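call fold target=Immunoglobulin-binding protein 1
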Amino acid sequence: MADHHCCSSHSHCDESSTTDETKSSSSPTHNFSSNDIHKHFNSNDNDNINEESQTVSQLFDIAWSNQNDLQSSSADTTTDDYSSKLLHTIRLLESLEKRLISLELFSDNESIDEVSTTNIRYLLLNAYLAWLYQTKRSKPSQRLINVQHACDYYSKFLTMTRNYEIHKYSIPKAPTNDDCGNMEQLNSRDVDMMKMAQDRASKIQAHLKRREEEETMRAFEEAMKHDGSDEEAKRKFYLSKIRWWVDTALNDLVYLHDELRVLLQRKSIEPTNDDESHRRPGPLPPSRPLKPLVITRDMLQSKAIGLGYPSAPTMTIDEFYESLARRGLAPTPEQSKAMASGPKLPSASDMEKEEVAKEAHVERDDPDMISYLRSKDDYMDDHHRGEGNRHNRS
């Protein structure tokens, strides 16, 4: 396993530091006050002092909590707080990795039963680092480095867990520049629709199973916060979480290797600075002469505002209505006047006169009016208000 510690031997630089160095060399110098500089160095020194004063277990508890927050479905991955927390967790786990290597907690000559319950969870360190580098936001020029780190950490995690016989899967190898040199190999893949459908069904089943395992682990972790005295339950929980990350690593490596091939191909295609310096701009192709566009002013003007306009008016509005009246589609002027002077709706005064006349008939005991009012009352008794047409009404 000594050859798998390549990720810890070299320092992984964040894009923020690389970008700052590039900006400082290319952009004009900024005037920072002495207070800002002291604040920056004091904050970094305080973080280093706190990490050195804490134990490995305490630091891993912080990284565990940060990892759960970063992987939460409710986390907003677009904020600066999320990015800074992710970078802080990477730096914390990398320092933990160096301390664990110096402590030599893991060996190839022991089984998982010989590892203490407290130390079992440290096997997740490389899986966490791989996921963080995979999730880390970066520029296109830095994405290749992040993907390579993620592949290295996942491979290291799978190798350590296989040495402890937690799984027996074969570890896929990351593609190299030689593997990605031929573009035709990727483009000439045979597409088997039946195999794709089977893979999709198996992935759906695996996803549902993983969701159930996540819910079980989350519930178990909540129970451990209240009662952490059961050593055997802790051990089962850590082993189940390691197995879950084994499946995650195998699935993520498939997509990371595909992305790595694309990034390596793009890097091989992009010209270097030396190639661009030796290039000389060739002669520009001769431009084709433009054909003159002749516009006839009279023709366009006659179409737009002259007599040649296709929608020019041919009659006035009065003539138009007269033509409609002759065809019987509109009333004639005489008919319009007759309609205007026709019967009108009764006004309030007419209705009052009708009520006065009705009361006069009642006072005179007019038999016709009395029979009319009685029949009206009988009708109202038998037919209540709103009883009209109730067709298609529930």
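return ok
The longest helix spans residues 231-269. The mean pLDDT is 75.
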